[in-house]
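A student in our group prepared the protein record below, which I am reviewing. What it holds is a sequence and that sequence's fold in token form. My question to you is simply how this chain folds and whether the tokens agree. Do not assume that whoever made the record got everything right. I have pasted the whole thing underneath without changing anything:
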Amino acid sequence: MSVFHAFRSAGGQRGGEDAREHGDGPGGGDAPPAGRARRVAGWVTTALACALVLFALDAPDRLGRLSAGQFVRIPVEALVVAALALVLPARARRWVAAPAGAVLGVLVILKVLDMGFDAVLVRPFNPVFDWSFLRPGFEFIDTSVGRPAAIGLTALIVLLVVAVPVLMALAVLRLTRLAARHRAWTGRGVAVLGTAWVASAALGAQAVPGVPLASGGAARLAYDHARQVRTSLKDRGVFARQASVDAFRNTPPSRMLTGLRGKDVVLAFVESYGRSAVEHPEYAPQVDAVLDAGTRRLKEAGFGARSGYLTSSTAGGGSWLAHSTLLSGLWIDNQQRYRTLTSSSRFTLTRAFGEAGWRTLTVQPAITRAWPEASFYGYDKVYDDRNLGYKGPRFSYATMPDQYTLNTLQRDELAASGRRPVMAELALVSSHAPWASIPSPVPWNAVGDGSVFDGMGKGENAAWPSSGRIRGEYRRSIEYTLNTLVSYMLTYGTKNTVLVFLGDHQPAPTIAGQNASRDVPVTIVARDPAVLDRISGWGWQDGLRPARTSPVWPMSTFRDRFLTAFGSTPAASPPPAASHR
């Protein structure tokens, strides 16, 4: 008898047949070999059903809490279902058990999703917003591991999404039949364990340190996600009210960014450059040394720098949420907000530069297809993987090295004569997970079309570093990008160059550490001292490395602070509400 057939027997066989399967019927002790095999299969199936239900009820929703001690608990949900099995007639019992099992299966899927999202994005799964991460997740696996692995994993996930609720429903059906058949034992067990649950809940008893004996995790998870759905459905209205407030929307161009006239402004997001990179003991000694050396080299060349911290709207991934948060001045922490924002007329930092006379552009080497949201930001030019002219190797997820990205900006835009000042937003992705392939710097005049990097990259699907190496590879990637930025300013920076660079978000907890903040360093570099004088009241640290005590602002406040510091005057009349298509 297969395990699946044994599960089916829970819902389809009559009580006498089920009793014989477990040796409870007449002649059970003298059963022939075939009968003994069925009886053993029945007990094994029952044990599997118990284990499956216990895992579903007591497993935590965070991977870091998963331990054997989590299962030394009394789940109140099991006691409730067992009590119902005692008092309900057979037909009603089946109608309660099967849906309860299916719901429990859905909760298991939610727990697994919560574990995955917490491990990567440092937050639980949102059933309303987070389906949009499926495509980026598939693409990341595709480029990091390979198409067959991405397809195989997708197929496995689909299979589990279907199979888990079905198997859980069959398991609960089987166990409730068993409970109803052994009413006396079930009644005593519910009474004893129920009393123990109440006492443990009242006294906070723990069988394992840090793990309460009384468990109601499944019910709490269902409640939390239901509340999350309710809040998420209301978020569109909340966000619309927030977006309708914009002090700079009606500011005339003549009163916009007057303190930066004639300057080229380069705004560079450094992938996964979080506070942990400059404070975590595994990274700080080397990364801080790079920042301090860069500060000295820049100072010798006549440049100054100031650094602080911003709190990102995301962690572990979702870089586009951080980019849109900083540029729009609104807190964008989910895909619904992002889509609402990018289909609105919200006044962005890039539009402010454009209206004030700058040529605005973005360089996005990780974008490999059409990007309709670009029109929202108001760029005059979009550079991406399709038109950057790169002929070199791929570096795992990164389509090209950061040095090539910066060199292309310089060659194609900033080196032109008789041009307008440029405001450029860049995404520097050499420090993107999986940190499997990190380029080496080359002389700037040798970058060319990128073929100079041949032999350095490991291409798509490069093997992830081992668990013992991945942190070191992450650190090396951050060092590479920071050294590249310093070298770029020393090579091409002038009195009219202003560099703003910051992290988009912290890396995943396996890199940043558990309970890490969402803070990212932010730095402004300029040769003209008047530029840094305008932010002297911000309290930022001198140099490229922020101090532990440096101010921490929400990333959404940067737009207004930056505009104000550099001579923009808020509009006198109230701005119109954001329009949504």
Observations:
- The CA atoms of residues 78 and 515 lie 32 Å apart.
- The longest strand covers residues 304-311.
